[in-house]
Amino acid sequence: MSELGLRLAISLTQIGAIMGIVIVTVLLLTLAERKVLGWMQDRMGPMEVGPYGILQPFADAIKLFFKEDIIPAGANKLLFTMAPIICLIPAFIGFAVIPWGPNWTFEIGGITVKPFVISDINIGILYILAFASLGAYGIIIGGWASNSKYSLLGGLRSAAQIISYELNVGLSIIGVIILAGSLSLVTITDAQQGWFWHWYLFALPAPQIFAFGVYVISAVAETNRVPFDLPEAESELVAGFFTEYSGLRFAFFFLAEYANMVLVSCVAAALFLGGWNAPYPGTILELVGLPSLAWIENTMWFAVKTYSFLFLFFWLRATLPRLRYDQLMKFGWKVLLPIALANIVVTSIAVFVTQ
Amino acid sequence: MSSTVHSKRLSLSEWFKTITFYEILVGMKATLSHLLNYRPITLQYPHEKRTLPDNYRGMLALLRYDDGTEKCVGCDLCEAACPSRVIRVVSAEVPGEPTKRYSKEYYMDMTRCLFCGMCVDACPVDALGMTREFEWAVFDKRQLHLNKQQLLAIGDRSFPIREKRLELQHPNVAFFNVPFKHVPPKPN
User: Fold this and answer.
1) Which of A155, A234, A258, B97 could share a disulfide with A140, CB 3.0–4.6 Å?
2) Structural domain tally of chain A?
3) A312 touches chain B (CB under 8 A)
């Protein structure tokens, strides 16, 4: 096999594995969200399909696949068909640069392979930000092409909201980038090794606690989740930008929303919470003499951080009511943006003084 | 938010609460405590059902005496009492007994019934009863248009213990077996 073919095969295997993990996570999340919401509201959540409703995601998936796929009469067919795909691809493509295990390399047939990251490109976080913004096109186009006032309003709201909060996400990340001196997520995660106070959330020259706060809030807003779910506000806009969608296309939007949640959580874990690093130096499995299995522990730590961030999404959804639109904009531009900018200034000065 | 007028200056503690998201944290603590002390108040309905109150007003039914004869005397008072015109009674003479009447046909359109129980109150012979049945969802609305046989069948399965026909009652007389105790006695 030629070198290119081998590289392609390895990359496709990795992509398949990551896609599988993400889709399984999304399935899990749909159930977990309903269960956690139910428990927080003294309900039981889904209980009918399988024991304690654990097969509910599969029932939902089967239902969505076999539903009739309706295109409204006045809709722009091409854009209406393209919008869910435009929304879905950026949500999945960001996972290419997420390191979900230790930065190991091994050689197969003369090429070096990093098993725990599909592609360690040196602009990693920039790449994620760029593609996350492209997802907004899917929402806007979907809202416009549906030929429905609710969809259009949802799409426009989403456009304004994502542009406003995308900025805050970008600015809150800059502090971390200054500290790490790199845009690559692998390098950023590697730089947070050791005890948990080396994580950039607590790291010494300039703890990124405020940046983390800004990031969390902006991430919730960027993924259109409660309390910032104005694009799909059920009580005002039916379902927002995907009002007219049904069947598989609706499933794509749904999948994109949850994949975005996972992506945002992965980025938060990698940038602020040390990624796959345990809160103690090294790993326990290494100490007990199993260094070849240490990646399991590291991956588990990454999963724990990601899932606790995802739990925060559910927790916020169970607690908070939706913001009004002017409150949303005011909060984004007048509160979060100055905090993020001040954080950049403070971090820059701290790094300049200590170096 | 409602407690503070926007133009008023915030006090220091209020300002501190605002910037630390104090209220949001209180709310999140409440939801988390519900998650940790998980005690669901919902019932898994088709599998477990609530115990109904004693005075539950469910499906209407026609009753019989213990000898199997219908109680209904066809007086139409239920039809008159019904606020949503559910009931339609076709009254007729018992053949050969000119003093006695019965309901030849008796229809209830349960799609309109609001279960107020006024027909039961109006009935002078206690021929109507409200059962504890409530699971009457059907695919065809016309199945809720009940006739006399169906209503008697509901009464038979819901009230297996039947009232005795009063001994004083002459079989040829439509006897109104309501004790007139609630009517105040005439002042002397």
Assistant:
1) A155
2) 1
3) no
How many helices (DSSP H) and strands (DSSP E) are in chain B? 5, 5
Domain containing A315: what range?
Answer: 70-104+114-354
Burial class of residue A292 in the structure, from the number of CB atoms within 10 Å of its CB (0-12 exposed, 13-18 middle, 19+ buried): exposed
Query: Which among A43, A47, A318 has CB closest to B31?
Result: A318
**A104: CB partners within 8 A, 6+ apart:** A114, A115, A116, A295
| For testing contact with chain B, the best of A35, A36, A42 (most B CBs within 10 A) | A42
- pLDDT at residue B180 tops 70: no
Say whether pLDDT at A4 is over 90.
no
Could you tell me how many CB contacts below 8 A there are between chain A and chain B? 37
Task: Give me B140's structure tokens.
Answer: 């065809």
Q: What's the farthest any 2 CA atoms get from each other in chain A?
A: 66
pLDDT digits (tens, 9 = 90+) for A226-241: 788 777 766 777 777 7
Q: What is the dihedral of CA A150, A154, A156, A161, to 10 degrees?
A: 160
From A39's Cα to the closest Cα of chain B, the distance in A is: 5
pLDDT in tens, A148-197: 888 888 888 888 888 888 888 889 888 888 888 888 888 888 888 878 78
Residue from A40, A52, A217, A326 whose CB has the most chain B CBs within 10 Å, to mutate = A40
- pLDDT per residue as tens digits for the range A61-110: 888 888 888 888 888 888 888 888 888 888 888 888 888 888 778 877 77
Between the two ends of chain A, the Cα-to-Cα distance in Å is 49
What are B146's strand-pairing partners? B108
Looking at the domain assignment, is residue A281 inside a domain? yes
Question: Would you tell me which residues 13-72 of chain A have a C-beta closer than 8 angstroms to some C-beta of chain B?
Answer: 36, 38-44, 47
Examine residue A330 and state whether it is found in any structural domain, yes or no: yes
Contacts of B32 in chain A (CB under 8 A): 40, 315
A254: left (phi over 0), alpha (psi -120 to 50) or beta: alpha
Read off the pTM.
Answer: 0.80
Check if A108 contacts B (Cβ < 8 Å): no
Distance of CA A7 to the CA centre of its chain: 27
Task: Examine residue A187 and state whether it is found in any structural domain, yes or no.
Answer: yes
| CA dist list (Å): A137 to A140, A223, B95 | 5, 13, 82
Structure tokens, A249? 């296309």
